[in-house]
């Protein structure tokens, strides 16, 4: 047996350290469930919590999380921001080589596609697959749509009691009375671009010519309309218009017949997740019937075809939905943001 | 108890300077402090410069070039300069008459005006911005509705979502710099100078124009520059009012380049360097102006100050001063208080519309708000403790030793005072997102940011405190056999406790409501009170937001009063405290 020198030992240690790391990582991955059958409840409980980054309204997130926590005793911590906040946070963590998040949900499918392209997400054969139309899920199941959000015209009923604006074109006539939302880092842009893509840039320029008040979030559009600051708005999130009306605020909304820009919100599991069982368990809850029912109770249209629209909302089949090719949008996004910045002014994030 | 430690036994004997008799404990304590200071201040700044040149990727000047060539970047630079210029002018227009009124005239209610200027100074400007949306929102704003009703106007007379609006809201905050500096300068103008002029036949206005103004001109210019530089950095009002107005400033532009996807680190770092350059330029000119003041009014004897009798004019002056402090402090804070107690803020504040539910939501039931309050208390306490310990070590090196390079340390500990919060956050983000110190995504990164940002306040305070304590007291202890650590622990620290407690508060107060760095560094679970306010406002929950705002102002006000109580009258002055932003 050869005598061991100090150098050999140190060299050996140095060589095994990364090897150990690699094996433990590889083990972690092979151990990670790729379908509901592989979820180990005991392991999920040991993992103890799930970290979710989402762009969904806090009230809905809280409602979905609560029964999950009660059922499994597993904590769900979440970071809530706009789709851009959520995505930039995931990418920043990936750049740092230190992903803290287990599951991501964003209303901008282009962002989810970018995360997939960077190799951050992993496929998962969810039980929800048969319930979700093929167009609303990834071919290899790396992401699944969880909700659909439509743009509406929302208006103040005191100002437009008898004759509310019924079409996008009507909005362009309301100079000085309109409002829309777009965050400084680009939230809100996809649905305005959808409108331009299907109904022409002239319509969007016409909206800009009404000198709309610009606010940072869809919630603020509704707030501006509720208090009569402006009369009517291009509101990207139908659920907020729905809730405002439900709460008895002086607002109402219409889905214009010209077509309704729709945005696919989607979710996925992180490949580098250190809590794969708890995360998969929560993913199944989120996409399952109970979780999606709670989403719908909060005013969202579910991506599952076996769940009805929120009470009082028009079924999607009766709407003319306008969609985007998200692969194309992902590619053209910087150009589109610059275009919108040129038309509306201000910061659009590019 | 006071026996020499083994470490001391090996140290050189004799009556040398305390530093040379130090031994291991001293080297360890001070060495740690130096290392920590480099990691939290110098290291992030290094990364800022590296990233602006494209590192860790291949080195490039492309990002710096984009600052000048991209309209979005260049426009934000121009807007930022306009803002600084506007607030500088506004702070002269508000600050100088008020300072003269309270320092040299017989106007009634002088002390109240003085206190209200201090109040507008300590109110976080992002809260003032929120208040002004309620007051001067183009259509639903209370003042606009009132004016429309009074004057029978068609449209709204004021729109807070405009460049003028941003300048106004930031102006009613930063004019305090001009006010306090001018106030101090006017108090040191000898009344005999004014009297001589009057004896020679000069009228009241001639005295002001020919005697007072030239004497305090450096203070006025210096204050206006300080206000202008401060306004560059105020992310809160720039974002809250500038976004609807579609006006982009450098801090909001930097925020957008990082918070969109994919994050553009190089561009953000390059824009940060531009912001640093503007700040450094402004502060350098300001320093020059303030230094000129010294040869004007320095005198060996005491200064006698008198008050100008204004007759009926004092009511005119009071009306002006009252209007300024009404808009800078009374109106914004009152409207937040009223909103926080109203079921529906758009309705008048009647008894039927009264509720405490928003406070209950803000303090207990709303998850993010409650977590924000807890985190802010935790972070501000931690940051203040660390900053005070660190600054005590640095001040000790500066005051008690002849260590080479101690001036550099002192400079390093003062440097962040001139750096906008956004810039510090970008540097810290770049530095602490990667090994060896990867703490991004944890609460620790916020702690580092707060210590880095506010350590100058503690350092100045600790330095002044140690200077007041005669080193012979510690030397006496050492001679009688106490170790270095014992002498520090039993002599220096007890004697400087009140001063260090003020230093603690001076860090705690701005850290408690910090927004501009936090917004780039927080994550789920590490929300602070400022984040709760900013995010819940985004979600349209204005009543809860105003309850949180009232709570924040209450805490800041109570602690600021404590500071001024502890450090004597006039302590809530521009140079004693950093505002929350």
Mean pLDDT of chain A: 90
CATH class of the largest domain in chain B: Mainly Alpha
Task: Please state the overall shape of chain A, judged from the principal axes of the Cα atoms.
Answer: globular
Shape of chain B: globular
Distance between the termini of chain A: 65 Å
Low-confidence stretches of chain B: 1-20, 570-576
Biggest interface found: A-B, 51 and 44 residues
Instruction: Report strand % of chain B.
Output: under 5%
Helix content of chain A: 40-55%
Oligomeric state of the chains in view: heterodimer
Q: What is the helix/strand order of chain A?
A: HHEHEHEHEEEHEHHEHEHEEHHEEH
Reported for the largest beta sheet of chain A, the result is: 8 strands, mixed
* CATH architecture group name of the largest domain in chain B: Orthogonal Bundle
Number of strands of chain B: 0
SSE string of chain B, helices as H and strands as E = HHHHHHHHHHHHHHHHHHHHHHHH
Description:
The complex is a heterodimer of chains A (350) and B (581). Chain A is of the alpha/beta class. Chain A has two domains: 31-148 and 263-312, 3-Layer(aba) Sandwich (D-Maltodextrin-Binding Protein, domain 2); 149-262 and 319-344, D-Maltodextrin-Binding Protein, domain 2 (3-Layer(aba) Sandwich), CATH 3.40.190. In chain A, 43% of the residues lie in helices and 17% in strands. In chain A, strands 1, 2, 3, 4, 5, 11, 12 and 13 form an eight-stranded mixed β-sheet that branches. In chain A, helix 2 (41-47) packs across helix 11 (276-287) and helix 11 (276-287) crosses helix 12 (289-297). Chain A is globular. Chain B is mainly α and 581 residues long. Chain B has two domains: 24-56 and 359-581, Orthogonal Bundle (MetI-like fold); 61-295 and 311-318, MetI-like (MetI-like fold), CATH 1.10.3720.10. Chain B is built from 24 helices and no strands. Chain B has helices at residues 6-10, 24-52, 62-69, 71-104, 110-122, 125-136, 142-151, 163-187, 191-199, 204-232, 235-245, 250-259, 265-297, 313-341, 357-365, 367-400, 406-414, 421-432, 444-467, 471-479, 484-512, 518-521, 529-538, 542-566. The two termini of chain B are 47 Å apart. Residues 1-20 and 570-576 of chain B have low confidence and may be disordered.
